[in-house]
Amino acid sequence: MKIGFGLLLLALVPATSLAWGDECKFTADRAGGVDAAGVEKVVIRAGAGEMKVMGRSNAVRIEARGVACAAKQELLDATTISVRREGNVVIIETALPQNLEGWSFGDGEYAYIDIGIALPSSVPVEALDSSGDAEFEELRQLTLQDSSGDLEIRRIAGLADIGDSSGDVELEDAGSVRVRDSSGDLEIEGVRGDVEVELDSSGDIRITGVGGSARGPRDSSGSIPIQGVKGSVEVDSDSSGDIYAGRVAGNFTVREDSSGSIGHESVGGRVTVPNNKRDD
Length: 280
Known about the structure:
There is one protein chain. By secondary structure, the chain is mainly beta. The protein is 7% helix and 57% strand. The model is unreliable at 1-7 and 15-22 (pLDDT under 50).
């Protein structure tokens, strides 16, 4: 059991960390963990570096493992992982020298951690990630605020509530979805409940296979194809880019659209589009 779990943690560390070699002048393993009994939520606060978070139905501990990389020993010593328990909440944090008050990097200096986290799939996760690509899978519920980097999110049993400033987002197989996205493409597939995209400034939005209804945002640019929805589809407004709805059991509504075409087929309910788009 211990050997298997150790191999799982090694697999969780993003592949780039295994190839640092020549890029990192100083490296060190970092790890921490606690027993998962009675834990009701895991909070993750990660700085620069890539991250992978994976739930497992048979996990009995919450473990974090990574590799710290820095330009010099002083920076490496300040680059750490901590795992601690506060009541029924476990907090996992990466500490980096650039986050310290009054700290500034000199020329050619850097420090970051690529981290893998394993936990029981029954525990909800709340994560704050500042930069770097991240993956999340096999979780009960996920609340995520991400500043930059691509996101891959799979198999979330309940709500996936995602805020993303930049980078592409791929989300597959969730109970329900709520997203706020500033830039980058957004792809959502296989949602059992509702999908709500509250904000999207730029980038395409592709939604496929929704058991409930799908609501699009006030979108500045990018196309919006939405297909395979058992409820209704609603798009608040779109400044530029095409809008398409197909295989929608309920209504299809577009409230405002400045430019680009609006297309639809196999809509079971009422179709409502702006007057200037009725001939598209």
